[in-house]
Design a protein that fits this description.
There is one protein chain. By secondary structure, the protein is α+β, with helices and mostly antiparallel strands. It has nine helices and four strands; from the N terminus they run E-H-E-H-E-E-H-H-H-H-H-H-H.
Length: 202
């Protein structure tokens, strides 16, 4: 095997992994995994949690879970993150932790409510999830200057732009958050993000 493979879906968590590999100048193969296939016995042998993305490394070993994939990529390609030992690296992990443990679960409850409650409670769960997400959007609004790491986008910024694409109403989210609105505009126009989107628009 010559390079990386990403098993995923364009709208899923594989988006940021593609962005990071492109930022690192790495060729990779994208393997589309349907929602149905991700729940198959065949895919369970790859990821028993039945979800994407899965990163297949050049030596053949596989990594599941977005933060584990991100950690591998910034170790393999140090230019994607602040240097080890710098305060900025601690800040990066802080922002990633907030997004992965707080904002992501709130967005997941909005889109996959059936995992959390019976149907008659869906509206209440979604309303609570949207209110919870507001807290974390406010936090991130205060952290952007203009990116999470300062003057230039790095690994955490590609994770954040992925999350903004999952907001049920992004227009409402950015309406009162000028830093986040500017961030979304800049990142959606970023050559790497544009290239990943274009690759799946064919």
């Amino acid at each position: 095997m010559a390079g990386y493979q990403i098993m995923g879906r364009p709208i899923a968590g594989s988006f940021f992994a593609e962005c990071l590999l492109r930022e690192a100048g790495q060729d990779y193969e994208f393997i589309w995994i349907s929602n149905t296939h991700s729940k198959s016995a065949e895919f369970a042998a790859v990821n028993p949690l039945a979800r994407v993305p899965v990163l297949v490394c050049p030596d053949g070993h596989q990594i599941i879970e977005t933060l584990a994939i991100l950690n591998h990529l910034i170790e393999a390609f140090p230019q994607l993150a602040p240097k080890t030992g710098e305060a900025a690296r601690d800040v990066m992990w802080q922002q990633l932790s907030v997004m992965a443990t707080s904002l992501y679960p709130a967005l997941h409850r909005c889109h996959h409510t059936y995992y959390y409650a019976p149907e008659e409670m869906f509206d209440a769960v979604r309303d609570m999830a949207k209110k919870d997400a507001e807290r974390w959007w406010d936090y991130l609004e205060a952290q952007l200057d203009p990116y999470l790491g300062g003057d230039a986008p790095m690994a955490a910024d590609f994770y954040l732009i992925m999350l903004t694409r999952w907001a049920p109403d992004l227009g409402a989210v950015v309406a009162s958050r000028p830093h986040l609105r500017a961030f979304v505009g800049a990142m959606e126009a970023h050559p790497t993000v544009s290239a990943v989107k274009a690759a799946h628009a064919k």
